[in-house]
């Protein structure tokens, strides 16, 4: 026997670029595919402050424009053409 319960789960419905304010919704167009959500904790003695949490949402255009020269780009394993 299966007993079902309806539970709500929060989801990210929209992202807004922290640099340029470009917006994307999960249910429109490419959804959130063209955004980077980055979050990490820095350690003690960091230039950003001891024990600081860093979070940023960037559209990929802003990521490329600001960090482009330093990005190491290569083909992802899932996108590589299988060998014949």
Main-sheet strand order equals: 1-2
Residue-averaged pLDDT, rounded? 93
| Rounded radius of gyration (Å) | 18 Å
The string of secondary-structure elements, in order, is EEEEH
Going by helix content, strand content and strand pairing, the class is mainly beta
Could you tell me how far the N terminus lies from the C terminus, measured between alpha carbons in angstroms? 48 Å
| Count of β-strands | 4
Principal-axis shape equals extended
Largest sheet: 2 strands, antiparallel
Total helical elements:
1
Can you tell me the residue ranges where pLDDT is under 50 for at least 5 consecutive residues?
none
Share in helix: under 10%
What proportion strand? 15-25%
Task: List key phrases describing it.
84 residues; single chain; two-stranded antiparallel sheet; 1 helix; 10% helix; mainly beta
Structure write-up:
With 84 residues, this protein is mainly beta. It has a domain at 14-64. The protein has one helix spanning 60-67; strands at residues 14-16, 23-25, 35-41, 53-59. The strands form two sheets. The chain has a two-stranded antiparallel ribbon with strand order 1-2. Strands 3-4 form a two-stranded antiparallel sheet. The longest helix is centred in the C-terminal third of the chain and has 8 residues, at 60-67. The radius of gyration is 18 Å and the shape is extended.
């Amino acid at each position: 026997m299966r007993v079902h319960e309806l539970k709500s789960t929060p989801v990210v419905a929209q992202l807004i670029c922290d640099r340029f304010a470009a917006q994307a919704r999960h249910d429109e167009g490419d959804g959130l595919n063209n955004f980077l959500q980055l979050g990490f904790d820095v350690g003690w003695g960091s230039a950003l402050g001891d024990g600081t949490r860093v979070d940023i949402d960037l559209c990929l255009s802003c990521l490329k424009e600001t960090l482009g020269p330093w990005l190491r780009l290569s083909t992802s394993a899932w996108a590589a053409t299988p060998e014949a």
